[in-house]
Specification:
- With about 300 residues, the chain is of the alpha+beta class.
- It contains 10 helices and 8 strands.
- It has a 5-stranded antiparallel sheet, covered by helices on one side. A 3-stranded antiparallel sheet has the order 6-7-8, with helices on one face.
- A hairpin with a 5-residue loop joins strand 7 and strand 8.
- The protein binds adenosine-5'-diphosphate.
- The site of adenosine-5'-diphosphate (ADP) has 20 residues, from strand 1, strand 3, strand 5 and strand 6.
- It comes from Russula earlei.
């Protein structure tokens, strides 16, 4: 069935991304809670239609580690994109609680399985692997969203997103500066998986902006510096897994199949991991952080007579 705006009851705002807002909505005919992303684009109807058609492939992206796609439509110059509502939100706001090794193993195993499925079954390369694009729910499911399926959409968003947190592989950063967009292969995603894993584990982006005087210095470190590593509080197996992703030469990086059969994820497959419990703790921690921020804000605000 095709979704349209009339069927949706708008709810609270869930987040604000680089390209638009995400709202919770209720699909009235089916009573399904969804997340709706609004992307504002200054494009003509032909191009908007092309985007909607390109997004259609997402109906085939059905996998336990991929956020379900329900449909997309456009109104005036906005594309609306409806997907499965993930009630624990994105991983970047949860990992601060601390991620024990078994939880880390389960999260990345889900990520790699999702990425392998996209690549093998649909010939899709994600292109934007990072903790913000990993969503969780209270059941403990871990799913990927926001992958590049629409050339037109990617082009329109002009993803020259060299911000202060780049997950781009060295060859991509180099390629980008030479304006060659063709350097992107599946192994570039593997680098991003490695960086994301490190960030989830250590609780912060591995090339912290405060260490570098500017973005250029930071990107230079990614290209020319030694790849970052997991600290030795993690097992040798986990550290080896990450090092197989963070290899400078793309042709020497592990493939998804190799990453899945690596002892680290092999162990994960045989282990019972209480993801539900971890998500509950992380959500509670996130709530406490929010409250503390609010208190600090109140304290710093001058009292009005
Ligand atoms: P970005 O552009 O930074 O990738 P998005 O626009 O995709 O961010 O999403 C912004 C925020 O909205 C996310 O950080 C997340 O908290 C929330 N969000 C996005 N998709 C969903 C979803 N399917 N379910 C619940 N929350 C979501």
């Amino acid at each position: 069935f095709a979704i349209n705006m009339d069927q949706l009851q708008l709810g609270e705002e869930l987040g604000n991304g680089a390209y638009g807002t995400v709202k919770r909505v209720l699909h009235k005919p089916t009573n399904v809670a969804m997340a709706m992303k609004e992307i504002r684009l200054e494009l003509d109807d032909t191009k908007l239609n092309a985007i909607i058609m390109e997004l259609d492939i997402l109906h085939r992206a059905v996998h336990p580690s991929i956020v379900d796609f329900y449909g997309a439509f456009f109104i005036e110059s906005c594309v609306y994109y409806c997907m499965e509502y993930m009630d624990a939100g994105s991983l970047d706001k949860l990992y601060g609680v601390g991620v024990p090794e078994p939880v880390l193993g389960r999260i990345i195993s889900c990520m790699v399985k999702g990425l392998k499925f996209l690549k093998d079954e649909l010939q899709i390369i994600h292109r934007d692997v990072k903790p913000t694009n990993v969503l969780l729910n209270k059941r403990g499911d871990v799913k990927l969203c926001d992958f590049g399926v629409s050339g037109q959409l990617d082009k329109s968003l002009a993803k020259t997103n060299i911000g202060c947190q780049s997950y781009m592989a060295p060859e991509r950063i180099k390629g980008e500066s030479q304006n060659a967009l063709s350097t992107y292969t599946v192994s570039s995603d593997v680098w991003s998986v490695g960086l994301a894993t490190l960030e989830i584990a250590i609780g912060k982006y591995p090339y912290p902006p405060e260490t570098y005087s500017n973005v250029f210095a930071q990107l230079t470190a990614i290209i020319h510096g030694d790849p970052p590593e997991l600290p030795d509080t993690y097992s040798e197996t986990a550290r080896d897994w990450v090092s197989r992703c963070l290899v400078k030469r793309p042709e020497d990086r592990a493939t998804y199949a190799q990453l899945l059969s690596h002892p680290f994820l092999h162990e994960d497959a045989r282990r019972n991991v209480d993801m539900r419990g971890w998500v509950a703790r992380a959500l509670q921690w996130k709530d406490e952080q929010k409250q503390q921020r609010r208190l600090r804000q109140q304290e710093s605000e001058p009292l009005h007579p």
